[in-house]
Structures are given as C-alpha cells and as structure tokens.
UniProtKB/TrEMBL annotation:
Source species: Seinonella peptonophila
Function of the molecule: Manganese-dependent repressor that controls a regulon of oxidative stress resistance and iron-storage proteins. May act as a hydrogen peroxide and organic hydroperoxide sensor.
Co-factor binding details: Binds 1 zinc ion per subunit.
GO biological process: negative regulation of DNA-templated transcription; regulation of secondary metabolite biosynthetic process
Domain of life of the native organism: Bacteria
Record key words, sorted: Cytoplasm, DNA-binding, Iron, Manganese, Metal-binding, Repressor, Transcription, Transcription regulation, Zinc
Binding residues annotated for Fe cation, in chain numbering: 128
Protein localization: Cytoplasm
Protein name: Fur family transcriptional regulator, peroxide stress response regulator
GO molecular function, one term: transcription cis-regulatory region binding
Cofactor(s), by name: Zn(2+); Mn(2+); Fe(2+)
Organismal lineage: Bacteria, Bacillati, Bacillota, Bacilli, Bacillales
Length: 150
C-alpha cells in the first residue's frame, strides 16, 4: 500500500514540475510510512544517517513543496513545532497533553456538523477543524507507575 501511495505522490510532484531527488524521495517515503505526525526536526533526525549532508532547512523546503502540491498538511497546535501529516483524507486528531503525541481519529458523523452549520446559519461552509486532547496510553502508564513511588 505504501509503495502505491509513494508512486502516486511522485507522479503528483512530476505533474507539478518538481524534480525527484533522493532526499525528496526519502522524506516523502518517511512521511507516507510513519503514523507519528513528525516535526521537520524528527524527519531530519530520522534521515540524518542516510543523508549526512542534508540540513533541517532542506527538510523544511521540501515539506513546503509537498504542502503546495497537496501531499501533506501542516498541523499547528499551540506553540509546539509544526507537525506534518501525509494522510490527506478527512480525519481528526487526538493529542496527548503530556508528550505531544498525535493519533488519527476517524469519525465520519462529525462531518455532518458542516451541513448543519450551513443550514442553521446560511454560511457556505468550507471545512472545520477539531482536536481532542487527553493523555495517551503510554503517559497514563507512566503516571500509574509514578504514583506508586513514595
């Protein structure tokens, strides 16, 4: 599945006149295969061994290219660094208040809110955004362990 998405993404970039470099290919592949919603720094660190001459600026520039081509979306929550998501389908995010982990959450019924809002207000609704905040299972486990220490 990942290879099909990668091939489609490469084709989209070609159509947009973007030349495919090994670094671009690696960044794109990383984004398409991770579920972690990485920051540019996360991507840089993950690929640093393979591409020792690549800079964080290169990662940012490529993320901008991918964003303009409609291949990734930039997630900005609070003051934290932007995170990037290659899942362009309609979905929501659940965010951990402790470690910042972001998990995808798919609940199609929430999209009915757009048509309800349009009906009730007369607005032409162009989209909506909702985040859910809580404590991820890993942090919950650490809290339980931490509370047992005296």
């Amino acid at each position: 599945m990942g290879n099909t998405r990668l091939a489609e993404a490469v084709e989209t970039l070609k159509v947009n006149g973007v030349r495919m470099t090994p670094q671009r290919h690696a960044i794109l592949n990383f984004l398409l295969t991770t579920l972690s919603h990485p920051t540019a720094d996360d991507i840089y660190k993950a690929l640093a061994d393979t591409f020792p001459n690549m800079s964080v600026a290169t990662v940012y520039n490529n993320l901008r290219v991918f964003k303009e081509a409609g291949l990734v979306r930039e997630l900005t929550y609070g003051d934290a660094s932007s995170r990037f998501d290659a899942n362009m389908s309609d979905h929501y995010h659940v965010i951990c208040n402790h470690c910042g982990k972001i998990t995808d959450f798919d609940y199609p019924h929430l999209f009915e809110a757009e048509s309800k809002a349009a009906d009730m207000t007369g607005y032409r609704v162009g989209g909506h955004r909702m985040e859910i905040y809580g404590t991820c299972p890993e942090c919950q486990g650490q809290q339980v362990v931490g509370s047992k220490k005296h």
